[in-house]
Amino acid sequence: MLTQSEEWKVIANGASTSIAPFDGQDQLLKNLVNSDEKFWLHKFEQCPAISTYIYNMCAGQFDVIENPDKDAVVPMRIFLRASKRDNIDDTELFRVVNEGIKFYEEYTGVKYPWQKYDQIFCPEFRIGAMENVGAITFNDGYLQPKDATTDYLRLMLHYVALHELAHMWFGDLVTMEWWNDLWLKESFADFMAGTNITRNPAFANYKNSDQLFLNFLLHALSADIKKTTHPIQSVVNNTEDAVNVFDQISYEKGASFIKQLSNFVGEKVLTDGMNEYFTKFALKNT
Sign of torsion, CA 180 184 186 190? Predict the structure, then answer.
């Protein structure tokens, strides 16, 4: 990617390989720019084949925070506006993600499948967060002033971070073939994040984290009694129709169902199934 300012940060799915003044040697890019102006060329490692909806390219005048922990599972960075810098506990967020990866790797038996893990807090982002491969985007409304951040808001931020992290396996490593199977990523991401934050000893400092699954169940029941309820695996005729199934049924009811399923068949059966699923369908649709 080309930028007109050396100060701009550019983030893609693959790891950055170089940032250098554009020398005009690439004819395709040369035809796109005014040769009288100076540009910087950002290059990235090639990412494995991924689904189109989890492609990412972010660019802007972000502050960048690099994880100083050299023993982290993968390289991690946080990007955010300078005005939000004092609103984030980056040390804790890095810890949550790193310990979350370890838990997911052990739970699924599958190593973290991507090159790095960037978290980009975007102004006026249209949704809460998005699980782009190795470059997760968040609405920076999650970053409230520290004197306005309650234990509950802190728990919610880290729960969302673990939800998006779960998507690196559920949805990104293996992508559902069509939107009728949305639950294969969203229900599982809620279930995995809830399981991680309530079971992982590294998160014992979070108060009332065991209420996450109760919260899922109450939201599921609330949605299920309405006329708009639908099966967890529902009929989706086209991409416009798909928007209607991003709801509490596909998220919280599905997560509650999987938790019940885990209790019924036993966790080992469930996790063995996950391992077989990811091994068989890695970098594919199913």
Answer: positive
